[in-house]
Write a structure and sequence with these properties.
The chain has 201 residues and is of the alpha/beta class. It has a single domain, classed as Alpha-Beta Complex (Maf protein). 31% of the residues lie in helices and 23% in strands. The chain has 5 helices and 7 strands. Strands 1, 2, 3, 4, 5, 6 and 7 form a 7-stranded mixed β-sheet that branches. Helix 1 packs across helix 5. The longest helix is centred in the last third of the chain and has 18 residues. The radius of gyration is 17 Å and the shape is globular. The structure holds inosinic acid (IMP). Inosinic acid binds next to strand 3 and helix 3.
Length: 201
Amino acid sequence: MARKVVLATKNPHKVDEILAILGDIPGIEWLTFRDFPFPDVEEVGDTLEENAILKATGVARATGLPALAEDTGLEVEALGGAPGVLSSRFAGVEKDYRANNEKLLSLLRDEANRTARFRTVAVLALPDGRTWMTEGVLQGQIAEAPRGAGGFGYDPLFIPAGETRTLAEMAPEEKNEISHRRRALEAMRPILEELARGSLD
Ligand code: IMP
């Protein structure tokens, strides 16, 4: 019988990307907020690591099932790593992507150093309290103006290293091929395969 794992996020963009990356693992049945309601977990941690642990352990405890969470931040070198863990509420309002992008561009006006990276921390938590953590990073540059309609969040402003297009100008499969999320989740794949085999019981 397939092992059920809950995706501990209510962000539909993240759900789509995570399922595109890990949806093919044999023996894992993914449950999302769409088919399995769970309570909101407040992201009160000071780091991506703390928030990913809070979300995964909170949902594993609430549902009695293994839960996979991830927390992602955009870290801009010229801003000392900001917005980082505050990426979703950079401009004050939770998940106002346009306001966040406008604030980022205005802080970087006349700034020559546009180096940035996305960092994703993924956590798998079991209901008994055991956790596994992985990380994925995507290096790049902040564009001068938003470009593209794909993706979400800061994608219209983020040009991966070696690319000329922003993440929002890429097809979803192209973003998923190289993304920070992909790297963190692929590192988690062997642990999920063990879970599916029953080796973590
Ligand atoms: P969180 O992991 O839900 O806290 O996400 C923080 C914020 O980072 C989101 O609200 C988005 O603005 C941004 N973000 C997360 N992942 C991505 C991504 O893959 N591309 C662009 N922005 C992202």
